[in-house]
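Quick log. Single chain, no ligands specified.
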Amino acid sequence: MFIRFGYEIGIDCPHSTPMMTFLSIAKERRETIVTERGPVASPLVPMEEITDPHHNICLRMVLPDGETRLCYDAVISDEGRLDASDPLAEAVPVEKLPPSLLPYLCASRYCETDRLSALAWRLFGNVPAGWQRVQAISDYVHDRLVFSYGYAQAMRTALEAHEDRLGVSRDYAHLAVALCRCMNMPARYVHGYMADIGVPDSPAPMDFNAWFEVYLGDRWYTFDAKNNARRAGRIPVARGRDAADIPLIQTFGKHQLTHFTVWTSVEVDSRLSRSHRTADVSLLNPWFSETWSRHLQERDRERH
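-> predicted structure:
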């Protein structure tokens, strides 16, 4: 199957402001892109692609004063497989973990393992270490929190979500990550796109989603405390210790968000193929098409 995804984001700055974004899909999914336009900004600004310490793709740019629109639209091919499952996967003893995974056992900005440790051991200490324990944590978080977009709060931590008993997908992920780390299992936060594949369509506006990954055996496994079910068609964007490592947008100065639209949907056009990487994709707004055309013209001039 094919999945179309993208975003349109408006940002208004009172003066020229440096900015970084974690909006580019993870490197392992780049080879599945069939068609792609962007990312592009209006007005046009140069973008530098860099790799952060967690191996995510980050775009760095300087926004001019006034409003800037960022837009991206792409289609990828996807096999439609559910998240991998292995109920026999075992937890790795801390002393045998690769050194690179040790940071994912520690407390971080939104995951206060020191304050949740006693609770975690009381709740999950008798559950067999490994997959069963992670699933028990996911079940607990899923049942503990009540979801609503109206509960979104940028500064809410895992402990606060647990005490408030509410949140959005990032809060579910933060709490599950923290509890897994308390139980000596490396866990990391992930954000990305997720279409309603194999589930009823949600009436809520499309948004980026958050889930978490836990290292068991010799690999990372995907878990989702908010939905608490294996899903198909996830498109990871970035991974980190928590959301503080991978903000969607990070400006180094004042800014105001003026527009935010995300789309993720299943495409049924089987004619799409890897040879159509520059094929036309129907766009949501005329300005994006015009901006993309100017971008290509400027790129061609630079090459010649």
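The first helix runs from residue 113 to 124.
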